[in-house]
Design brief:
alpha+beta; three-stranded antiparallel sheet; elongated
Length: 184
Amino acid sequence: PRKIGNEFSLQKFGYATGSIIPSHSSNILRTFLLKTKDESAFQQDEIVVIQCNIDDMNPQVLGFLMDRLYAAGALEVYYENYYTKKSRIGILISVLSKYETFDTIADIIFKETTTLGIRYFRVNRKKLKRKQRRLNTSLGKIGFKEVIDRRYKKIIPEYDDCVKVAKSKNMPLKDIMTKVSKGR
């Protein structure tokens, strides 16, 4: 393919002639197949943020809640501490979710916590394009995410794979993650 300007690249071209010979012009057809360039390093989508405040529940429940939410398809779960009325320590529960899993996740929050209500809102998300790959290292095969665009070169090791190797080799997890990030 040949680059044509900043927007397109030439994929194929062709010429053809007709059977009639007009006296005032040539009878030639020229066609091009152009491909638009998708140079964006990003993917965009829309997700939902689900939140609730808790100030009257045993915080030991939060670990179990997080496991349930991830199992139901949550993209991210996080907790923040704050002070609420009557100087109680409160917890803000935030969950990032696709729309397809919203009802399931909301149901889990209502069942597993003391909340009487949730709030939710749509947000736009921009994320780097990436590929899932596996790397043969001296420690064994480890999965990782690799950013496709050269401008944002990143290799992010799969946590669970690194944990398995750390346990089996009796090595520090951080050393394994560093090794995979460097492609060894």
